[in-house]
Design goal:
With 346 residues, chain A is mostly beta strands. In chain A, 12% of the residues lie in helices and 44% in strands. Chain A contains five helices and 28 strands. Classes of the chains: A mainly beta (346), B alpha/beta (549).
Chain lengths: 346, 549
């Protein structure tokens, strides 16, 4: 999509928004602050107040879910004796077994970053809606965090695999455009080298799973820093990026981009319109096929067959006759191809 | 067939047409209902990816009608169809998102999750006291979740429980303020205490789905969550939702035909499981992430399980890529035999999961399959096999498909109109696949059942011995009725309460015929890969070869 799009930034609960409606924001700008909860502590209530655990309910002045400040009373008894909060935090529960209150201290303030450039349109409960003037590419798969960085093309041709050896310190902080696949080893190295994100034509599901498992283990052991996102633009398996799109990426190397792995989105700023895709291709359109045996291959739709015809699987479908770029002429279900529309054709 | 009316308006022949349209998340199905020789019939139907425009759908339907329409209207079919009244349903625009906090993942958590998923919610985050995470990690996970509602469960009714209160406190802390409701489906004894954690009106108490260690009571929670999703996510348009319409149509069919019916609609995103008894009392489960483009199909281990159920050698990695591609582009079609085999295996697996998480499927009279993967399978026998292998319904039953996807739109009519609509289109809505006798058990070396088939005007067949692990398909054409005499082995059952050894039943045929299925429930497969594939191949061939007994 080209032009201005609305992007919704989900804000974790407890975020204090620091921007206003109408404000212009940069990808690295702090839009809010949040204090996450840390490992909770047990605050004894019964011993200081000389009560039985079963009597705690009657003297509590806070309730689970409440946020308390340091020295704020938690429980009070007649005569003015009180138990106060030893630190600021969230009250999680009160135990009738041991008479303690579970309090999760609030950690240091963490910045919340939008990772997009644009203007704040609205602030909703739990979200910020931002107008983003950029070329927007929606992928078919993705993984990881929201990141932003400069766009760099990492392979000479869209059919090439992105190799681990091709990633060096020059890619740190960048969004790397790969080719038809990347192994778990390549993805792990990219992350280790500080690459912000990777755009690929395809990836094997197993490689992606292996990479995610490695990241999960590293996160659990506390050895992971920085964010990393992956976007797939064509499909799963070894699938090259469409030539037209790859050429567009090459022409936009050096531009700032925002990648949202889990949301399967890429924004590229100050960019020419993207080549678009259209379902329901017409005769004469340049098309790209999405299912095997032609997945990722480009060609030209030369004819539409009358009536329904059975695909190899036996499913009756509207069939298109496609002259692929390798010269082969093959019938393909019309539902399995998309027209690639050059931006100049708009 | 003629569509049209001899009466004319301003010199033009008038056609009595209407459209039944089901706009799915991946495919749109449309059926043209027209009047022919005094009767309303489904005159044509078509399906296309939902991303294609409506003009294309109208053009396709007009082309399908062109050969059979009255010459006086055939030149104007496109205009007539575009202007025709339509009854349409659609897949919910987005599923309801819920966060679940429960004491135990296996007891209260499982019961609450199943109830939520059956009501069409997607559980975006689930924390339990036994999930291995720290309290801070659980709190952080709940705070980061973007949800429409919260679901709390835990504690048996008679006992209360500190653990349930701790989870309630966690939700109260994570939720902060806001408008999102909190459903309390935990111990009844703790209701008032938990209500105190939230502002007045926030907590909605519902009967505990796990009131004691040995009892489950998920229905009140499911009904409540059904109503809540309608209020929060699809306000005021519930009848126009395809899963709701499908369930209503199945219920009405059951009531009108005095049959126990199970209908399954397997779409790209949603799976709907609608069962109804002969009084039309229905029970629907709508699983928002139960369809073929569901992320659950690609969770670790599942592609390998699906590969394990294939008769052809395709490894789990290729299956995973194919399922991910299906998820990425649900409007595309399996083009190769291998991809179709994977899709059908995935459909069987999803149906098996639905069957395992619901009440027993024994004792149904009619099983209806809907959704493109089942109802538009290239060969009817493939649809029959997906239904029987996936659901494993023990007993004697009829099977049918909804090829035009008409049940959902018909179910969107008003109560009194559904009866009329189904009655008018009774011969066209469902395509009979035939009948099946599915038994459980059996002893090696002995027939699990011996079946004699008597068809009016045809020589009697059998008795046919069906050994454990075998499936036989007997020719029985659509409309043809057969009397069955079934003799069961002492170790086999058809699910009847009494262990009757000899039974008689009347069944009618369809596009596939009569299936005699002694493959046990659940299906039993050899461990060795080659043996397993040989067995799976023999089953596939039994279904798809021309019935020749």
């Amino acid at each position: 999509m080209n032009g201005v799009s609305l992007h919704r930034v989900h804000l974790p609960r407890g975020t204090l928004v620091s921007v206003r409606v109408g404000a212009a924001i940069r990808p690295d700008e702090v839009i809010g602050l949040r204090r996450g909860a840390m490992a909770p502590v047990h605050v004894p209530l019964t011993r200081p107040l000389h009560l039985q655990p079963s009597e705690v309910d009657a003297v509590l002045v806070v309730r689970p879910g409440e946020r308390v400040e340091v020295d704020q009373p938690l429980a009070l008894v007649e005569g003015g004796r009180a138990v106060t909060a030893p630190l600021a935090g969230l009250v999680l529960s009160v135990s009738r077994r041991d008479g303690t209150l579970l309090l999760a201290p609030l950690g240091p303030e963490q910045p919340v970053i939008s990772h997009v450039r644009g203007r704040v349109r609205t602030i909703e409960e739990g979200a910020l809606v931002i107008e983003v003037p950029a070329a927007r590419l929606r992928g078919v798969g993705g993984s990881g965090d929201a990141v932003h960085g400069e766009l760099v093309v990492g392979v000479p041709s869209p059919e090439d695999e992105l190799r681990a050896a091709a990633i060096d310190s020059g890619a740190t902080g960048k969004i790397l455009v790969g080719g038809s696949r990347a192994s778990a080893e390549t993805l792990t190295r990219a992350r280790a080298m500080g690459v912000a994100g990777i755009v690929l034509g395809g990836v094997l599901d197993k490689e992606l799973r292996d990479f995610e498992a490695i990241q999960r283990r590293r996160r659990e052991s506390g050895g992971m820093t920085g964010s990393f996102g992956i976007l797939l633009v064509e499909g799963f398996g070894k699938v090259g990026i469409d030539r037209g799109l790859f050429t567009w990426f090459r022409a936009h190397a050096g531009r700032v981009a925002s990648l949202f792995g889990a949301d399967r989105l890429l924004y590229v700023y100050d960019a020419a319109p993207l080549p678009e895709r259209r379902t329901l291709a017409r005769v004469g359109d340049r098309v790209i096929a999405h299912r095997r045996p032609f997945q990722g291959r480009g060609g030209v739709l030369v004819a539409l067959l009358d009536d329904l015809h059975a695909a190899q699987s036996g499913i009756p479908a509207r069939m298109a006759l496609v002259r692929f770029e390798d010269g082969r002429l093959a019938p393909v279900p019309l539902a399995n191809i998309e027209a690639t529309v050059a931006p100049t054709a708009h | 067939m003629t569509i049209g009316n001899p009466e004319t308006i301003a010199g033009l022949a008038r056609a009595e047409l209407s459209l039944l349209i089901d706009i799915g998340s991946a495919w749109t199905k449309a059926a043209v209902v027209g009047r022919t020789r005094g009767r309303w019939r489904i005159a044509a139907h078509a399906a296309q990816p939902s991303s294609w425009d409506e003009a294309e759908l109208i053009a396709t339907l007009a082309a399908r009608l062109a050969g059979s329409a009255d010459p006086r209207v055939s030149g104007r079919l496109g205009v007539l169809l575009a202007d025709a009244p339509r009854i349409s349903v659609h897949t919910p625009t987005r599923p309801g998102r819920i966060a679940l906090a429960a004491v135990s993942s296996e007891l209260s958590g499982r019961a609450a999750r199943l109830a939520a998923e059956a009501a069409g919610w997607v559980v975006v985050e689930a924390v339990t006291a036994d999930d291995g995470r720290t309290v801070a990690e659980r709190l952080s996970a709940l705070q980061s979740a973007e949800v429409d509602a919260w679901l709390l469960a835990g504690g048996f009714d008679a006992e209360g429980g500190e653990g349930a209160l701790e989870m309630a406190g966690l939700v109260a802390a994570a939720r902060g303020g806001g408008r999102s409701p909190v459903v309390w489906a935990g111990s009844a004894a703790l209701r008032d205490q938990v209500a105190d954690f939230f502002d007045p009106g926030v907590l909605r108490p519902v009967a505990n789905p796990r009131p004691s260690a040995d009892r489950e009571n998920p229905l009140p929670l499911r009904r409540y969550l059904d109503a809540l999703i309608e209020r929060l996510v699809e306000r005021g348009a519930a009848r126009q939702l395809a899963p709701i319409g499908f369930g209503r149509a199945v219920a009405e069919l059951a009531r009108a035909a005095r049959l126990r019916i199970l209908g399954v609609d397997l779409g790209a995103r949603y799976a709907t499981w609608a069962s109804a008894d002969e009084n039309g009392i229905a029970d629907s489960r709508v699983v928002a992430s139960g369809g073929l483009a569901s992320p659950s199909l690609t969770l670790p281990g599942r592609p390998a399980r699906i590969a394990h159920s294939l008769s052809v050698a395709i490894d789990g990695l290729a299956v995973a890529d194919a399922l991910q591609n299906l998820r990425a582009r649900p409007g595309s079609l399996p083009q190769t035999d291998e991809e179709l085999a994977i899709v059908h295996a995935a459909a069987r697996d999803l149906l098996g999961e639905l069957a395992a998480n619901g009440p027993a499927t024994g004792g149904i009279d009619l099983l209806i399959g809907s959704g493109r993967t089942i109802a538009a399978a290239p060969v009817p026998a493939q649809a029959m096999q997906v239904l029987l292998d996936g659901i494993r319904p023990i007993g004697i039953l009829q099977l049918a498909i909804d090829p035009a996807g008409a049940l959902g739109p018909l179910g969107a009519l008003r109560d009194d109109e559904i009866v009329e609509g189904l009655g008018m289109l009774r011969d066209d809505v469902l395509t009979p696949l035939g009948a099946a006798v599915v038994c459980q058990g059996g002893r090696p070396g002995h027939p699990a059942m011996r079946v004699a088939v008597r068809r009016a005007g045809w020589p009697a067949l059998g008795p046919i011995d069906v050994r454990p692990g075998q499936v036989e398909v007997v020719p029985l054409a659509r409309g043809q009725v057969a009397e069955l005499e079934i003799e069961l082995d002492t170790s086999a059952t058809l699910g009847a309460p009494r262990r009757t050894r000899r039974l008689r039943a009347t069944v009618s045929g369809g596009a596939v015929g009569l299936v005699l299925d002694a493959r046990d429930v659940p299906l039993q497969l050899p461990r060795r890969t080659d043996d397993r594939r040989a067995v799976l191949t023999s089953w596939r061939e039994a279904f798809t070869r021309e019935a020749s007994l």
